[in-house]
Automatic annotation (TrEMBL):
A motif ('HIGH' region) lies at residues 16-26. Its cofactor is Zn(2+). Zn(2+) binds at C148, C151, C161, C164. ATP binds at T336. Its main location: cytoplasm. HAMAP family: Met_tRNA_synth_type1 (MF_00098). This is Methionine--tRNA ligase. It is an enzyme of class 6 (ligase).
């Protein structure tokens, strides 16, 4: 396919939903690759606008508002501010980050719908939808749960079963329930307006399957699987009171479907940024439109939104949609409801100054064509063994040696040896290599090429060993450090799209104004006599304690989820009261407690049972208590259990403990002080 050259590029990043924070799955899937690409285009001097904002309508926001006893607007105000600040602090360089509750967005989306309506591009249809009689509202598919008819997962959603992956219709669910009230919903007739996607199917096949074979295989493949089936009309309105009102008579109590309204946010946010100039960024054929999204949004951005734009007329269509797959966390699917996530706002507080470390790791693990996995140990290893040991180490050696031998002034370059020529030849085409990869959205491989430049520098300076020959051949050392400093300067440019914070610090260290992408690969970036700035460590090691803290947070989240999901074991078979009366449960006061030698699980108790003679009981709770924790406590024990020997100690009863869902034991105690030997009745 002949490559088309554009005058400008509109880059959009999926609008994050203002019902919670941003996590690393969002960053890896959308925002880091989008930011790398935009920074790269800017460095090349291209005309680009980076557009995003908060998606603030839909049912989940109304549910959260009800739970918290606040308005939906208060919910979105809170999370919009949080998300916007997190992006700013992390270095995601949007030209505008706005929101879908703005007046300009409401008007833009309303006008867009009205034009489709007036042009006869929408169809009016009455259908039966589930209605929650307790909550007095129709239910979005996602807010109906029930048993999957295929795999019998009891917690399938009305649109999809996350266990087996089946696409569902809410009416297929067995024993459906409202996720809002828990009641059984009923079917009621309601009227909505639909976009007849079936009428655009042939055009979509031609446009995507024939016209965009260069799209990523995962994107192209998902589009093809949809287009190989018969597309159906899709509702563009919903029965809801939170959203943009449908601008049609007789549509009271209905709003624009959030998936109709949200992508129009790209247009309205551009209008807000450039009120007098926005149209050329959306309607000029010489503008390239690129959507950065996650794989769960492919259908909306490749089929639904383009069909909306086509129906409206006058708008350009996306030239590429480089959607990423999903990022898992510690070998488990990221889940906001289970708090199984690394939240950006938390990371920025707990790992201050390490924005570039996370950017680097997420790019190195980018799920570009398949799901990938983030682990905190890999995060630590990549920081310590790559950023610190390779990139940072080379930069530090080159700058510190220059400071030591020439007071931080770039030395002159003498006669080049074959070793020098080899190093210079190795990185002379770094610009072409990185560009070739970034142009086709291969960010992971492009970052590898940038890091390869640091590896070249490290190998070079290690092989030349300037610290060993300084006294015997200082002229040779001048040349070695001149070559090394040129590689350092190239690193400050090559890493600029990927690691903007550390690149800015490195440019300050070498007293280099800006990052001129066109100069990447040159060997004369720092002239002899150029005064360098003060060297400092570019990256620092991350210790085990910091990683252990993060792992403990996740472990605590997992335990909290298990506790919330725990159901008590079934009650045992009924026993006669006469049998129960045979058990003699009493209160005992623990006078002493010690671990049993050679037994990891056992503690030996000395109990005052009120008889005047101390009682010995051995209990298997050593994993859950230190002996000193229990001394002085009043506990319940079975007094008439037949004695038995454990590790040679005769145990005269059983201390009662409750077993938690995770197998941990908690000794039973009493609320008020009673005398030892008191019966439990």
């Amino acid at each position: 396919m002949e490559e088309k050259h554009y005058k400008r590029t509109t880059v959009t990043a999926a609008l994050p939903y203002a019902n919670g924070g941003v996590h690393i799955g969002h960053l890896a899937g959308v925002y880091v690759p989008a930011d790398i690409y935009v920074r790269y285009l800017r460095l090349k001097g291209e005309d680009v606008r980076f557009i995003c904002g908060s998606d603030e309508h839909g049912v989940p926001i109304t549910i959260r508002a009800k739970k918290e006893g606040i308005t939906p607007q208060a919910v979105v105000d809170r999370y919009h501010a949080m998300i916007k600040k997190s992006f700013e602090d992390f270095g995601i360089s949007f030209d505008i980050y706005s929101r879908t509750t703005s007046g300009i967005h409401s008007q833009t989306a309303s006008d867009f719908f009205r034009k489709l309506y007036d042009d006869g591009k929408l169809i009016e249809r009455e259908s039966e939808q589930y209605y929650d009689e307790e909550a007095h509202q129709f239910l979005a598919d996602r807010y109906i749960t029930g048993e999957c008819p295929h795999c019998h997962n009891p917690k399938a959603y009305g649109d999809q079963c996350e266990k087996c992956g089946s696409d569902l219709d809410p009416t297929e669910l067995i024993n459906p329930q409202s996720a809002i009230s828990g009641s059984k919903p009923v079917l009621r007739k309601t009227k909505n307006w639909y976009l007849p996607l079936n009428e655009y199917q042939d055009w979509l096949k031609q446009w995507i399957l024939e016209g965009h074979k260069e799209w990523r295989p995962n994107v192209y493949g998902q589009c093809k699987s949809w287009l190989d089936l018969d597309l159906q009309p899709r509702a563009m309105t919903r029965d809801l009171d939170w959203g943009i009102p449908v601008p049609v008579d007789g549509a009271e109590g209905k709003v624009l479907y959030v998936w109709f309204d949200a992508p129009i946010g790209y247009i309205s946010n551009t209008k807000e940024l450039m009120p007098d100039d926005w149209e050329k960024w959306w309607k000029d054929p010489e503008t390239r439109l690129v959507h950065f999204i996650g794989k769960d949004n492919i259908v909306f951005h490749c089929i639904v939104f383009p069909s909306m734009l086509k129906a409206h007329g006058g708008y350009i269509l996306p030239d590429n949609v480089p959607a990423n797959e999903f990022l898992n966390l510690e070998n488990d699917k990221i889940s906001t409801s289970r708090n199984w996530a690394v939240w950006l706002h938390d990371y920025l507080l707990e790992m201050p100054g390490k924005q570039d470390v996370m950017r680097y790791v997420l790019t190195a693990n980018a799920p570009e064509t398949k799901d990938n996995n983030f682990t905190w140990r890999d995060f630590q290893d990549r920081n310590n063994n790559e950023l610190v040991a390779v990139y940072g180490n080379f930069v530090n050696r080159a700058l510190q040696l220059t400071k030591k031998y020439w007071d931080g002034v770039v030395p002159a370059c003498g006669e080049l040896t074959p070793t020098d020529h080899a190093a210079l030849d190795e990185f002379k085409d770094v610009k072409q290599k990185v560009e070739a990869l970034l142009d086709v959205f291969k960010f992971r491989d492009a970052q590898k090429e940038a890091m390869n430049l640091a590896r070249i520098g490290n190998r070079y300076i290690t092989e030349c060993e300037p610290w060993k020959i300084w006294k015997t051949d200082p002229k040779r050392v001048e040349t070695i450090l001149y070559v090394s400093l040129q590689i350092v300067a190239n690193l400050a440019i090559a890493f600029e799209p990927f690691l903007p914070f550390s690149s800015a610090r490195l440019r300050k260290m070498i007293n280099m104004d800006g990052a001129d992408w066109g100069s990447l690969g040159r060997t004369d970036l720092l002239a002899p006599g150029h005064k360098l700035g003060e060297p400092e460590l570019l990256f620092e090691k991350i210790d085990d304690e910091a990683i252990d803290y993060q792992l403990k947070k996740l472990d605590d989240a997992k335990k909290a989820n298990e506790a919330a999901a725990h159901k008590a074991d079934p009650v045992k078979a009924t026993v006669d009261f006469a049998d129960f009366e045979k058990i003699d449960i009493r209160v005992g006061h623990i006078k002493a407690c010690e671990k049993v030698k050679k037994a990891n699980k056992l503690l030996k108790f000395t109990i005052d049972d009120g008889s005047g003679t101390d009682r010995t009981i051995v209990s298997g709770i050593a994993k859950f208590y230190e002996p000193e924790e229990l001394v002085g406590k009043d506990v319940l024990f079975i007094a008439n259990l037949a004695p038995r020997k454990l590790m040679g100690i005769e145990s005269q009863g059983m201390i009662l403990s409750a077993e938690n869902f995770d197998g941990s034991l908690s000794v039973t105690t009493i609320l008020r002080k009673v005398n030892p030997g008191s019966k439990v009745c």
